[in-house]
């Protein structure tokens, strides 16, 4: 029994320590001056409203941001709209929600903040005055912020105006995010359409040379060619499995070997555990193509390419290595930094950008190279990333 | 007994594991073999690997020890360990695979899109993995102690070091084939001796196991006491040797242990004559063999509760074990996950036929273990006891090697999955470095805990890990997969309401001596009250917070339940290589 008590006491003390540490680690509330406190509280509330605003004017997120924006303005009610309807109503007097779009019409056309007298006749309804301010993205009014109050004051109009301007800034950032996404998507589409004409020409000539001597091989190669182009031109989905991507690489290599013959040798070491890992579409094939190009270019002796896929706990590690002419590290750095270099193609930079965007900055490409010393590219993929599915 | 072969077997297994880890299966392949290289792991291989990782110390030495001491009630352990996969097969395997999750926290996040649910799930997964590593280290200590007489903590340390070095150096990762091999090694190590033991038993006259008498010494047996031991003699026993009994120094021949309780001091060594009734360790049940062979004969408080609690914990706990879930990721799709589970059921079923035979024969051949309390050692001692000479020693070495393989493979499976969770959710360090630090952390905690833990049977400790898994992560998986109404708040509340009491009960059982209290069984077998608690709280809180249902629940549910080849997510057409396969002869 005493043992039980002792353990109980230990658990209680442990819980108490955890609680104290937890409380102690929160934001400290002791400020030197009142101004500091106000600054802190205002900016803190503003930043709480920022993440949902970044999601745009959609009902679920707008609801969250409206709550913080109302705290900032300290009004009884606040509404956010997009160009068509009210997306969030925060606070009392919800029955006025239907009128908001009518009031907003004028603001949409002029783009200027205006106060309206509503004059609600219901007793206890705090919604008497509405201050409607535009939310502007790139000079275009995409919605309004309406603050409702009991009485009108010039201060309220100015404060509402400022909050709406700040919110517009966040919405513009959201728009920026979206255009960045669109840009990358466009690049992936470009990458898909980017099977090089030389590759098509070379593959078809290689196949043609087998048609009479080895029709069976020619048939296999043609099927490989068909599958490879079909995969590369695939329209749907940004993700695939490592197995699919490796299959496409195999078809690509089969075609390249038909052309280079004995000069191109390839070693593969694939851990079967990682084959089901979800990876971005066309994130490895361009690296292999790069290795073939660098491994075989400008030399007569055979080129060797090694592809390793290893299982590493919660991650898959992939390396692609060639023994060719290597790359100029400086040019490579420029490519990866986004200054597209024509010779390196858009491949490496695009893949690096996509990996970082999906998995975070820890997961970019790692390239080890020097001129004349070959190239080794390493990629890591987490086995699970929330929201990504093949 | 001559231990050389046993030591050699343990060394071979430990070194072999290190070497495989260091050199890996470095088989390079050229492109002509690409399809071989890139073929996914077949359900057979994967099932063997799951079996290899799953059959732990509890299965290899623990079950036999419990049946030896407590009788057929303990058969629920092997039955439950296997039946857990039946529940997994019917309710969890395929949807879990389709969720794309690698660890349980991954599943929590995939299903609920909430970092809070993820964090709670990972906390519990870590606790379960530590609770499960503990008996592995403990069992390794026991094995090494039995084989060589080395101190109890040494075996655990060796296993911890071997596994950590292996995991950190990058070995034991692409381990499907290694683990699959381990299953067959363990099956051989436990099944081959069984054949010889049964033959020897028949050659000795095939004595009945459920006779009316108390267990008796078959031959003059020397027993050494490493710790102070309280024993209970049912009959007067004449013995010889030297030592301290009840505080009095005794020495010579013709000593008499009177009926009743006695305390024997550490360092005593006594020889008991053939035919004498075996005095029992005071805390073990002592019954006649006939009574031992009957279910629920043990008495004790609430025997029926204990049995149902065990059934619930093992049936529902398997799905919450971190190293089991991780293996399913290797399956290419939900269908393969189901096939794998089906095969696992068969493989485990065959293996679990063996340990009870050791437990039963132990009643006849190694009854002195009832006196010292080292009941878990029955598997290790039996072969050399029953079979004279070199044959017995070799079989003993085989069993010892198999047991060590069991500790190593289970520990490394646990360690890899645990290090994954630690690096991702606790240290927030991804990449190789984070994984290495996590692996170290994953080993140190349970290793230091083994020093604190007293004489709890290995299988009982494993039972506690199962109980925590069954009361926290099992509700999350079952309700998460089969109900659309579960909310994030409900998930967290249910996991905590089931998991924390089970965890607290486990910690109390391990650290405090409560075995003589009436409530002991509720702490050592908590599942029967914590599992319903977890389920009820999760569902009830979810109904009370309908606003917190994750927004994308319907999309997630389609992904979990729709077979992949329906193409609800994609619009694949058959590829040319499929066509090629069909058209070519």
Question: What this model shows, in words?
Answer:
The complex is a heterodimer of chains A (390) and B (585). Chain A is 50% helix and 20% strand. By secondary structure, chain A is of the alpha+beta class. Chain A folds into two domains: 38-183, GAF domain (Beta-Lactamase), CATH 3.30.450; 193-382, Histidine kinase-like ATPase, C-terminal domain (Heat Shock Protein 90, 2-Layer Sandwich). Chain A has a five-stranded antiparallel beta sheet with strand order 2-1-5-4-3, with helices on both faces. In chain A, strands 7-9-10-12-11 form a five-stranded mixed beta sheet, covered by helices on one side. In chain A, helix 2 (34-54) packs antiparallel against helix 3 (59-73). By secondary structure, chain B is α+β, with helices and mostly antiparallel strands. Chain B is globular, with a radius of gyration of 25 Å. The relative contact order of chain B is 0.17. At the A-B interface, helix 1, helix 7, helix 8, strand 7 and strand 9 of A face strand 1, helix 2, helix 6, helix 17 and helix 18 of B.
Describe the structure using short key phrases:
heterodimer, A: 390 residues, alpha+beta, Beta-Lactamase, Heat Shock Protein 90, 2 domains, five-stranded mixed sheet, 11 helices, elongated, B: 585 residues, Sodium/glucose cotransporter, three-stranded antiparallel sheet, 65% helix, 7% strand, globular
